[in-house]
Amino acid sequence: MAKKGSKNDITKLTFEQSIENLREIVEHIERGEVPLQESIEQYEQGMELIKHCRTILAGAEKKIEKIAAEQQQENEEPAEEEIEEDFDDEDEEGLF
């Protein structure tokens, strides 16, 4: 069964820990062996875990986009230099 915790506790969980807690909550609620009020509390905790997971995923997506953009920029810079060198070579050949 997932541990009850405050929002601060949830924010300290890793993505994997949050997913595991969500699985436990779903299993517990689906069994239908808990009182309604406890099911509602677990549902609320599950929603907080989902929000936390989405925040983690959004942060990971931003990091990946940043890394990809940096990599793309690094790959494009040498190409621009090579093009400039090619133009310089052509200009010199055409003068004489």
Automatic annotation (TrEMBL):
InterPro entries: Exonuc_VII_S (IPR003761), Exonuc_VII_ssu_sf (IPR037004)
Localization: Cytoplasm
EC number(s) from the headed UniProt entry: 3.1.11.6
Coiled-coil intervals, chain numbering: none
Biased composition range(s): Acidic residues: 73-96
Superkingdom of the source species: Bacteria
Region entry Disordered, spans: 67-96
BP term (GO), one: DNA catabolic process
Catalytic activity: Exonucleolytic cleavage in either 5'- to 3'- or 3'- to 5'-direction to yield nucleoside 5'-phosphates
Sorted UniProt keywords: Cytoplasm, Exonuclease, Hydrolase, Nuclease
GO cellular component: cytosol; exodeoxyribonuclease VII complex
An MF annotation (GO) of this entry: exodeoxyribonuclease VII activity
Subunit structure: Heterooligomer composed of large and small subunits.
Family affiliation: Belongs to the XseB family.
Function: Bidirectionally degrades single-stranded DNA into large acid-insoluble oligonucleotides, which are then degraded further into small acid-soluble oligonucleotides.
Name of this protein: Exodeoxyribonuclease 7 small subunit
Organism from which the protein derives: Anaerohalosphaera lusitana
Higher taxonomy: Bacteria, Pseudomonadati, Planctomycetota, Phycisphaerae, Sedimentisphaerales
